[in-house]
Design goal:
About 30% of the residues lie in helices and about 25% in strands. By secondary structure, the protein is an alpha/beta fold. It folds into two domains: about 220 residues, Rossmann fold (3-Layer(aba) Sandwich), CATH 3.40.50; about 70 residues, Alpha-Beta Plaits. The strands form three sheets. The chain has a six-stranded mixed sheet, with helices on both faces. A hairpin with a 2-residue loop joins strand 1 and strand 2. Helix 3 crosses helix 4, helix 3 runs parallel beside helix 5 and helix 4 packs across helix 5. The chain is elongated and about 75 Å long. The structure holds adenosine-5'-triphosphate (ATP) and magnesium ion. The site of magnesium ion has 3 residues, from helix 2.
Length: about 325
């Protein structure tokens, strides 16, 4: 199995259903060692189900899981000694302090020193509150403690299900730095989220899951390159003419007005062509009030995860169509 030797985690045709509800419908993941992998998908896509399967909390109906190149069957739970996980709302001993929770939890796996406990409390910013009962912790403080628990054993593979839930901005920045540093030191981080920008800021590789299947997987910069756009702002009066000119430049269907009020036009083309976009407009006497080049991963995400989306309803709930409902 040389191919999987460089993979920290992989799954093959993983299937799981709850009664008649299909949660995973043949999931094939490939997570290389030493990177941050962003597992991205809308509500109900199967992210938590995947995390629970990977940690042996539930059994798959079909398919295989490989952790650090070895087949994880549920019988060989010792493989999990090298895995740290945070899944949904972590449970703690509520009557114990954060410090004692870490000590008790640390005593149940690979040996954890007292200094490691202190180091984790410091890392997640709970040192000042380490003596308080966890029962009195806020949501974000519990989440921080959950991250500390996941890291406690210094695992080779870290599985984090929506770890940024409930974290304040400083907590999110801290989490991002920590995860990037871990990957830089050779650890593998597999992190799920339904929030694209959150993942985009830290992942090296992104896998997009929808309705229990992986619909896209690849290095973030490659995904970004396929979604390159140039955005240009013109006055509303000039937008029709600009649209016509840029359509000729970009090919049919590759120009859109994203904000009718402000008349921002989006041209699906590489950043290098932004001067060309500007010139075509200027030659017709249209001078852009704004021009920016970037990537529109957001629309790729929406497109990939909501293939069956109906017409968006009008009114206050517009935009809330159920990507999860199947
Ligand atoms: N215990 C359960 N019993 C029945 N159905 C379940 C159960 N857990 C999950 N499901 C269903 O499986 C599908 C996948 O759920 P899962 O929790 O894995 O999604 P998710 O990607 O984690 O979503 P979210 O972003 O909301 O956390 C959903 O349709 C969900 O309703
Ligand atoms: Mg979930």
């Amino acid at each position: 199995m040389t191919a999987s030797a460089t993979l920290a985690l992989s799954t093959k045709d993983l299937k799981k259903r709850y009664g008649s509800q299909v949660a995973l419908d043949g999931l094939n993941l490939e997570v290389p060692t030493g990177i941050v992998y962003g597992f991205l998908g809308p509500n109900g896509a199967g992210k938590t189900t995947t995390m629970r399967l990977l940690t042996g909390l539930i059994r798959p109906d079909q398919g295989a899981i490989y952790l650090m190149g070895e087949s994880f069957t549920g019988a060989n739970r010792q493989l999990l000694y090298n895995v740290g996980a945070l899944i949904e709302s972590p449970s703690f001993y509520p009557h114990l302090s954060a410090r004692d929770n870490l000590r008790v939890i640390g005593a149940s796996g690979k040996a954890v020193t007292r200094s490691r406990v202190e180091e984790m409390l410091e890392l997640v910013g709970l040192r000042d509150r380490a003596r308080d009962k966890v029962a009195n912790y806020s949501l974000g403080m519990r989440q921080r403690l959950g991250i500390a628990v996941a890291l406690l054993n210094d695992p080779a593979l870290l599985l984090l299900d929506e770890p940024a839930n409930g974290l304040d901005p400083a907590g999110i920045v801290g989490l991002r730095d920590t995860l990037k540093n871990l990957a830089a030191s050779g650890k593998t981080v597999f992190i799920s989220s339904h929030i694209l920008p959150e993942v985009q800021q830290m992942a090296d590789i992104i896998g997009i899951v929808a309705a229990g299947r992986l619909v896209s997987q690849g290095p973030l910069d490659e995904l970004l390159a396929t979604q390159a756009i140039v955005r240009v702002k013109v006055t509303p009066a000039e937008s029709a003419k600009a649209l016509e000119l840029l359509s000729a430049l970009a090919g049919d269907g590759h120009v859109s007005i994203t904000d009718a009020g402000g008349a921002w036009l989006t041209v699906r083309t590489a950043a290098e062509r932004s001067t060309e976009v500007n010139r075509v407009l200027a030659q017709a006497g249209i001078f852009a009030a704004g021009l920016e080049a970037g990537s529109d991963l957001e629309s790729l995400f929406l497109q990939l995860t909501q293939p069956t989306a109906p017409e968006q309803p009008a009114g206050p709930y517009a935009g809330w169509y159920a990507g999860a409902a199947r």
